[in-house]
Amino acid sequence: MIVVAKDGSGDYNSIQTAVNSAKPGDTIQVKNGVYNEGVVFKTNGTSSKPITLINYPGHSPVIDPGHGKYPSECCPSSGPLRVEFRAEWIIMEGFEIRYGWDGVKVFKPHNTIRNNWIHHNRYQGILIISTDDIFVVGNTIEKNGTDPGACYDSAWGGESPRHCHAVYISDYSCTSASDITIRGNVLSNQGGSGVNFNGYGCSTKIQNTLIENNVIENTHYGTAMWYSVEGSMVVNNTFVLAQIPETNATNHTFVAVWGSTGNVFKNNIFYSERGDVQAVQINDAESGQNTFDYNLWSVKSETWVWKSSWRSDFSSSYKSATGWDKNSQCCKVDPGFYNLANGIYHLKADSPARDRGQDSTCSAVDFDQELRLESGNTCDVGMDEYL
Q1: Which residues, 6+ apart, have CB-to-CB distance to 117 below 8 Å?
Q2: pLDDT digits (tens, 9 = 90+) for 13-30
Q3: pLDDT at 126
Q4: Residue 369: how many CB atoms within 10 A of its CB?
Q5: Chain Cα centroid distance, residue 355
Q6: In terms of Cα–Cα distance, which of 260, 126, 131 is closest to 200?
Q7: Is residue 377 within 8 Å of residue 384, measured between CB atoms?
Q8: What letter would DSSP give residue 6?
Q9: Kind of pairing, strands 111-114 and 210-212?
Q10: Cα(229)–Cα(208) distance, rounded to whole angstroms?
Q11: Cis omega before residue 331 (within 30°)?
Q12: Is 300 left (phi over 0), alpha (psi -120 to 50) or beta?
């Protein structure tokens, strides 16, 4: 056991120094304090002996490489200005991560990011680059790139909050990305997407992503698949688009797809009372080759996009035009949340989302780690199983 403590009561007073000393099988526990440093993992663990960086029991350490400011304000050339996974078989758990270029950037496979609070980083919450076997589980990821001047790049035309996402999976190297699990997170208050995929310009694919049991709320796009995304499962999530942060996006949607096929969207709740939220944007003919079913839709706007054509007949024509969602409840169905005003999206006893999911694609447990099929009933739609 390795202990990090700013007050000198541990083995090290710097997280990076402890990480540099770690060997496969080591666990590094970090005590309370604000650690004004980035962290880079360079030493591999193994499948049986991962390296674990975790909060000391009962403590809530903070990683703040920007010293309380966005990096452009304080230290543009001093780094690393985030948490970087440049090694394999690493587990990171129990940290608040703020004021980096990104919260976490992942370059290598077989890594787990679990139970962290990742917020107010300049660009992305978690950025995953052309790698495999990544677990993003139980985190709260919010308000990254949302402050004035934070999400800025000349290539985007300047300030552009729609380019900053909670979780961003990019095949930047065009070498593929696969087997990424995004489970049980709260992804909220982003000017960009809750989960954004980008395989544009690559012949390789982003494959076999599992997005389940998440709350995705108040984001410009709930999920956006920007080319070359295949075989993803988006199941048992609750999407709520209500108070979206200020962004340069001109319209919003739960699901936007370009140049991606063979993805499955089932057992989800999609809810919005906003007039500027489209249910889906299917932006080319190729992207019509996906599957939607067993969902619950509550959408105010009648505007949507089907195979690049903007339409204004969602309630009357969505199912017939697409052939999708034959077993779904659409299109203005109140899901029966326990307390919508306070963001409590668990289901009430009389919710129409109860026992309306497809068991074969349902997640085994719900957002709260409760078994979905324990009582023998059909599983519920959304992130919560009413028990």
Answers
A1: 95, 96, 97, 139, 140
A2: 999 999 999 999 999 999
A3: 98
A4: 10
A5: 26
A6: 260
A7: no
A8: T
A9: unpaired
A10: 9
A11: yes
A12: alpha
> Does the pLDDT value for residue 276 go beyond 90?
yes
Count other Cβ atoms within 10 Å, centred on residue 13.
Answer: 16
Summarised one tens digit per residue, pLDDT across range 323-363 is: 999 999 999 999 999 999 999 999 999 999 999 999 999 99
Structural contact between residues 274 and 300, judged by C-beta atoms closer than 8 angstroms? yes
Which band of pLDDT confidence, cut at 50, 70 and 90, is reported for residue 73?
A: confident
Give the distance from CA 14 to its chain's centroid: 29
pTM higher than 0.85: yes
Phi and psi, residue 144, nearest 5°: -90, 130
> Cα(234)–Cα(382) distance, rounded to whole angstroms?
11
Residue-averaged pLDDT of the chain:
96
The neighbour count for residue 133, using CB atoms within 10 Å, is: 17
Dihedral over alpha carbons 350, 355, 357, 361 (to 10 degrees):
140
**Of all residues in the chain, what percent carry a pLDDT higher than 90?**
95
CA–CA separation, 127 and 111 (whole Å): 13
Which value, in Å, is the radius of gyration of the alpha carbons in the chain?
A: 21
| Token code pair at residue 245 | 């942060």
**Contact predicate 361/294, CB 8 Å:** yes
d(CA 30, CA 22): 13
> How many other CB atoms sit within 10 Å of the CB of residue 285?
10
Cα distance between residue 77 and residue 74, in whole Å: 9
What residues are paired with 84 via a beta bridge?
40, 105
The answer to whether 242 touches 215, Cβ cutoff 8 Å, is no
Closest of 253, 337, 327 to residue 293, by C-alpha? 327
